Task: structure prediction
Amino acid sequence: MKLLQIILLYLFTQILFGQNPYYYTLDRTNGLPSNSVYDIFQDSKGFMWFATGKGLCRYDGSVFKTFTSDIQTSKSGSCINEDSFGRIWYNNFDGYLYYVENGELKNLPQKESVGYIKYSIIKDKLYLMQPKGVMVYDLKKLRPIYFYPIADKNIRSTFTAGSKFHLIGEYIYEIDYPKKIKKTPLTDDFKKTLEVPIVQVIKDELFIVSKYSNYYYLFKNNELIKKNFSSSFDFIQNLAYIDDTPWLCTPNGIIKYENEKATTYFSEYNVSYIFKDKQQNYWISTVNNGLLFIQDFKNNFIPLDPKPTIFSPYNNQLLIGTENDLIYGLQLDNLSVKTVYKNKSNHPINQIIGNEKNQNIYFTSSKFKILDQKNTITKEWSTAVKDIKKVDETYYSVAASGICGLFRVGNNKSKWDAIFKKYYNTPNGFNESSVLRLNGKSTAFNSENNCIYYATNMGLKFVNLNDVNELKFQNKSLYITNLQSYKNVVYALSTSEELYKIDANNIVTKVSIFEEHLKERFTKFKIQENSIFLFTNNGIIEYNLINNKYRKILPLTSDLEVTDVAVIKNEIYFATSKGIIVKNKFKNKEFAKPELIINEIKVNNILQNENNLSNLEYNQNNITVNFSVLSFNPNEKNSVLYKINDGNWNRLDINNRNLILSSVSPGDYKLYLKIDANYETAVEQINFKINKPFWLNTFFLIYLGLIIIALAYTFYKYQIQKIEKKNQLLLDKVNLEKNLNQSKLKAIKSQMNPHFFYNALNTIQSFILTNDKKQAVSYLSKFSTLTRTILEMSEKENITLSEEIKTLGLYLDIEKARFDEDFSYEINIGYGIDIENIKIPSMLLQPYVENAVKHGLLHKKGEKKLTIDFERIFDSLKIIIDDNGIGRQKSAELKAIKNKDHLSFATEAMQNRIELLNQYKQQNIAINFEDKLNKNGQSSGTKVIIEIPITY
Result:
């Protein structure tokens, strides 16, 4: 009965786990548009493409970009491919083809569809199954170029082998454009067994399976060989060929069929496809759980619940402390797990160590406990022990709450016996010696100098065989959270996450080598064999203390936490929040380094080819570079550096994938981009040139300079001419004024000529001789008044009309005295003429009146009459001087007889004066002469008509 209980207990504690590799899940929470994924593809640039339930999407390791369009009949599809022009194609389940070009999803024009049957791209041709045959398209022009008619209505599958397109129906049809179709007959058994064949080309033969049968065929040299699977499968939904092995995708996982042996992985997933990328990563698509990403299929993953917290090697097994007061034992030979200890306290186990000599396990959960080889608790101590390290076969150093000292585990004689005895506590069931009454956090032992180190709340203490003292760095206390020994040195991590090294002489130095290599700080470290394992937020870094090389050995995600690591023989064990990950120390895969990819370049928000950037216009100066950082290491984020020409490197935001250059000045530019990393990375270079505006080009500037010089010269000449003209105008004005003054002087002279004075004085003399004193006085008064008036008028440019009429009256009265009683005159003023305010040029009318008297009336016999009329016509003053004299012709004849060389001084002077007035005053004084004739055609007088603009 007791033996049966032992067997049942053993069976109960044995838990067998599937040996799946560790994987990362990518689903809608990570940005995948749909958890239904049907196909996987990697393009020539390195991007991953997925055909999902929400359409085709691209992934760069960080961001999913989905390509959809309103032209799609449906979005779900499969069969992703890339043509030689860089376009990505896929086929939706309605049988219609779509492709991505320049970031846009477009459709291939198809009149009709036969449903979902895989198409094929071979070189620059596309082969598409149509209702009555196969259409061949020219991919360069995207138009059909040939049609192969096929009468077979039972086409069930297509595949590509080399440069040939194949179809499976009643025959295996082979199309090698532009040759004719070749047909290979199929056996009746094949047609019956493989209702829906799935074909995979394997080297020089075809591996053909059916969705619904447990048979497969090998087709080679036109011969079909039927074989049975070694295992039974309910349904095969896809087939892949990876690592020289067929992989069967089923609703119950993925099956690696190698050497007639089937190995099932991920049986809990409905797998639609498996793909191995260029970086040797594995991608598994599922029908309802998104993507599984596996960096190394050779690692092992053991799911474990509750979560493991700490490791300790012990008796060919790995002790695993968990967060719920449970200890597992991982058997190193077969990776099976058994329960070593279980309690219901739910306290996490934070410290555990196994002593193989006395077969005891020391661990701390709610209490410090000792577990014997029968997995029975023998002792408990209510002190919270934080750390235990082996000193020798007799003693362990202990760091606990309130105590730092030695713990006795054996009876052999030891050099530490004196220290233990000196600080030995009162017996309480534990053989401990409290060297320091402080709160201990960690401890380490250096066998080189026989020093035990304790990290306490009062600084870093050390104990040797003679003394207890404190270690300081630059005279400051060190507050340490973790101590680890390696050969003759001890490494210490401070509360501020600084790493220090303590050598055998107890000299403390700061370790800076990790800062040079790591872009992020680490919060924990552990030394195993010759390596330091650094725990960062994004992964576990292994630093080899022998060759000083480092590598990221395990990437981390937000849902994956690593609490401990152990190296045993050739394996590295990781305690994670999901279970135990086991990696081979020497076969551990090097993770691919991230790669910078330039996706597109836009100029003024218009997509441009990189080859068209060497001749941009001056206003094409807003440059946008969209790029991706290809990195399929989970949770790895990389920022990008850029610089222009020989400038300094600038860092973009870690999530920014667009470099925007706004309002760039004209010039030649070299734009450099690279990934910000602690190793040499490839530099992407983009050359572009922004031309100067035409008005800044050299030839234009020269031309413009010549124009400016010409304009300046022209302007200079114009100004000179303008100045000369101005000076000439001034000179002309001076001359005009001079001439005007001279004309006025001549007018005065004409009115005050000697003949006039002589005649006037003779008249006065005659009055005196005849003793006609009254007439003499009156005449003399008028003569003096006229003389004074003429002299006053000579000082004025304009006089009022009343002044002119008065002067004319005086003059005519004086002239009338020379005549007999037969001379009379009239001065008539028309309606609306304001003689007191209207002004006319001085001494303008008198010369014409004098001419009328002297040359027209003087020589006439009979009645002599002179009429002066003033009329207003709109804004002009019309003056008519009308005489009934002998006329101008007769007068001229008389002048010619008297003096051939005499010219009419007054007439000529007045004509010149009027011209000068019109020019100087910008007036328009008009003078017209009319010769009057009687009924017999003889002259009967002269009429002078003067029109003057009215001024006030």
Q: What stands out?
A: Residues 1-18 have pLDDT under 50 and may be disordered. The radius of gyration is 61 Å. The longest strand covers residues 939-949.
